[in-house]
Automatic annotation (TrEMBL):
Domain EAL: 411-672
InterPro entries linked: Chemoreceptor_zinc-bind_dom (IPR025991), Cyclic-di-GMP_PDE-like (IPR050706), EAL_dom (IPR001633), EAL_sf (IPR035919), Globin/Proto (IPR012292)
CDD domains attached to this UniProt entry: EAL
PROSITE patterns in the cross-refs: EAL (PS50883)
Record protein name field: Diguanylate cyclase/phosphodiesterase (GGDEF & EAL domains) with PAS/PAC sensor(S)
GO molecular function: cyclic-guanylate-specific phosphodiesterase activity; heme binding; oxygen binding
Length: 672
């Protein structure tokens, strides 16, 4: 290359870099004049040799491919790059008369090679970056996304077969045609359209980009490749939105779909509840059991077109469209899964390991989603108590639906009454007296109980609404209403009660609002010369110094409820007694009732009472219902006195139960 030509090309590249310097981002990579001068000299020299036919096409392509990869790594956008290449082309064309004829003729060819090299480098860079993000685990990318893009990459750069370009036939496309996707998108049609159209655009762009690339038009393929990756990330975003919506309310979405859409098939309720109850002492084994079932279900039905899988905690719902997926395959899978679980957890779980109920979705259409949700819970409870000698129990629940819905309506009615009580901020107070066991005289102590009333003034017992309050996670607001009601009626209570016992949900002790209301109740009771005893069933709360510090006062005592039920931590209770936290124990009523007919239970009862007395605790017997039981309970101090002469006298024992009085409204005791 002559010095004259070199000077001309130097001048072209100087103008080229002057243009780059006008771009703030691109110019940030040109750190000094010396660097620019070196780049101008090197590129002018190579381009001069390329135009002079001293370099073959492969070498030209390789040189500019390496340069392009550097520019890609600097993240200079392809538009800026191709604008610069076009600028270079124009500058060369403007000086063509100064170039030798052979160099003049090679300008279009060399510029074309440069364009192809940059397009190749940028296509490769875009795809590699996308694969890095896909492989990082961030976002809602599936293995299908990764495998599809890897196949596309290899089809371009490793001459392998291309991926499936038909959006209906690729793995993700088949899932988008499934019942699961249809249910997940129910009442989210805008999101469904976005996902389907983006997936279609992705495949169309891929097919076109692949065709351009194979035909040697890499520059046309480049924007399509970027569109592919942008659509892939957009698709991931839409899928993430769908999954978030699904996970936050999947059961409701499923039931909305069942209620509104016609489907020829069945709803399988698959529960591990029976097995979980047997493994409840081993959290690890329970987790393993759930994982085994989840893995098996996903593996078999995760991408099945005719099955919608909904996983809940320990239970599964399978909605099956029999026009696309036969029941026989479900049955075979259930048999295999139950056998596998039974083998893995042999000797730790009695059959059935897997309990399955089948419901005809058409039978649910006349009910509300709330009613169906409660019905499914009852179905799971029912399946958990049905015996079966084999690992798998499959039961048609359709004949039981009428019975279930009677219970459902009762549940929802009481739930509504609970909500009305919360809105009214008031409950009905009932009281049951405690009597001195030895004499039968009234002690002046009462347990405060809570009742609800329906629209017909029928009283709803605590046994019906207490579990509902807990299941609906309303413990804290409900206990606040109880305490507020007690506070408002405290002066009336003080007219006949020397001491009152109250019950709160264990969870409520974690609420600062409940603790504050309890402190206020204790202070007001003290002003009225009335004692306050809080019954607790979960004693660990009492072992927390902060808890005791917040509640312990001269007028607040604690009683251990259901003492002797089998769940008491006796060592902890002993320590709490030493710290003067606990004052009373209430002997579990079921233990008291069974003592009449069982000598072994009487021995247990003696031991429990003996422990309480040794700890210096007052004793209250629950469920005292007849004279025979009173005689038995009165004999306990005499028997124990021979073993421990220091024990208290029999008159320190209290009894509570129907023998003395049923619980009665506050107004009854005020009149009495």
């Amino acid at each position: 290359m002559s010095e004259h030509i070199k000077d001309i090309l130097n001048d072209v590249f100087e103008r080229f870099y002057i243009t780059i310097l006008k771009d703030l981002y691109a110019s940030s990579f040109l750190r000094s004049y010396t660097m620019i001068a070196r780049l101008v000299s090197r590129q002018a020299d190579f381009l001069g040799r390329a135009l002079a036919s001293n370099v073959d096409k492969e070498e030209i392509f390789g040189h500019y491919l390496a340069t392009a990869k550097v520019h890609w790594n600097l993240r200079i956008h392809e538009k800026a790059i191709f604008d610069m290449i076009e600028f270079l082309h124009e500058e060369l064309w403007n000086i063509r008369e100064k170039l030798p004829p052979s160099a003049r003729e090679r300008i279009p060819e060399v510029i074309g090679i440069i364009r192809e090299a940059y397009a190749e480098a940028y296509i490769q860079g875009i795809l590699e970056d996308a694969l890095t993000v896909l492989g990082s685990g961030s976002g809602f990318f599936t293995d299908d996304h990764v495998l599809w893009l890897e196949d596309f990459y290899r089809s371009l750069f490793e001459n392998e077969s291309p991926p499936e370009f038909n959006p209906q036939r690729c793995k993700l496309g088949r899932w988008l045609n499934s019942l699961t996707f249809e249910v997940m998108c129910y009442r989210a049609s805008d999101l469904r359209i976005k996902i389907l159209s983006t997936h279609k655009d992705l495949h169309e762009a891929a097919k076109l980009a692949y065709t351009f690339y194979l035909n040697g038009n890499k520059e046309k393929a480049l924007p399509l490749v970027r569109m592919i990756c942008e659509n892939l990330f957009l698709l991931s975003s839409f899928l993430g939105e769908l999954i978030f919506r699904w996970e936050s309310s999947k059961v409701k979405i499923l039931l909305d779909y069942i209620k509104e859409e016609s489907l020829r098939g069945g709803l399988f309720v698959i529960t591990l509840n029976r097995a979980i109850l047997q493994l409840r002492k081993s959290h690890e084994e329970v987790s393993n059991l759930k994982l085994e079932l989840s893995h098996s279900t996903r593996e078999n039905f995760g991408n099945s077109e005719g099955v919608c899988l909904v996983e809940t905690d320990g239970n599964l719902y399978l909605l099956v469209d029999t026009s696309r997926f036969p029941f026989s395959r479900i049955r075979s899978w259930l048999e295999e899964t139950a056998q596998a679980l039974a083998k893995k957890f042999a000797e730790r779980i009695k059959n059935p390991v897997l309990s399955v109920g089948l419901i005809d979705p058409e039978m649910l259409k006349s009910y509300s989603v709330e009613e169906i949700q409660e019905l499914l819970r009852l179905a799971e409870e029912h399946l958990a108590i049905v015996d079966e000698p084999k690992p798998l129990l499959v039961k048609d629940l359709t004949p039981h639906l009428e019975e279930f819905f009677v219970r459902v309506h009762r549940y929802l009615k009481i739930k509504r009454l609970v909500q009305e009580a919360l809105e009214a901020q008031e409950v009905i107070l009932y009281l049951q007296p405690l009597h001195v066991l030895s004499s039968g005289k009234a002690s002046g102590w009462f347990e405060c109980l809570v009742r609800l009333k329906d629209e017909k003034d029928q009283i709803i017992s605590a046994g019906e609404f207490i579990p509902i309050v807990a299941r609906e996670n309303l413990q804290e607001p409900f206990d606040l209403v109880v305490l507020k009601t007690l506070l408002s009626r405290l002066r009336d209570l003080a007219k006949f009660a020397k001491k009152i016992f109250i019950n709160l949900y264990p969870r409520s002790f974690s609420s600062e609002d409940v603790l504050e209301a309890l402190r206020e109740l204790a202070l007001r009771a003290k002003e009225l010369n009335m004692g306050l005893v809080v019954e607790v069933t979960e004693y660990e709360e009492l072992s927390k110094p902060d808890f005791v510090k917040k509640l312990k006062s001269n007028n607040m005592e604690f009683a251990v409820d259901d003492f002797g039920s089998g769940y008491a931590n006796f060592e902890l209770i002993g320590r709490l007694t030493e710290e003067k936290v606990v004052s009373f124990v209430k002997i579990d009523g079921s233990l008291v009732k069974r003592a009449i007919s069982s000598e072994s239970i009487r021995s247990v009862l003696d031991s429990v009472v003996l422990l309480a007395l040794d700890l210096g605790l007052g004793v209250v017997y629950e469920f005292v219902e007849n004279q025979e039981l009173i005689s038995l309970l009165r004999s306990i101090p005499e028997r124990l006195r021979a073993k421990t002469p220091q024990n208290r006298k029999g008159e320190d024992f209290l009894g509570q139960g129907y023998y003395y009085s049923r619980p009665a409204p506050l107004e009854f005791w005020l009149k009495k």
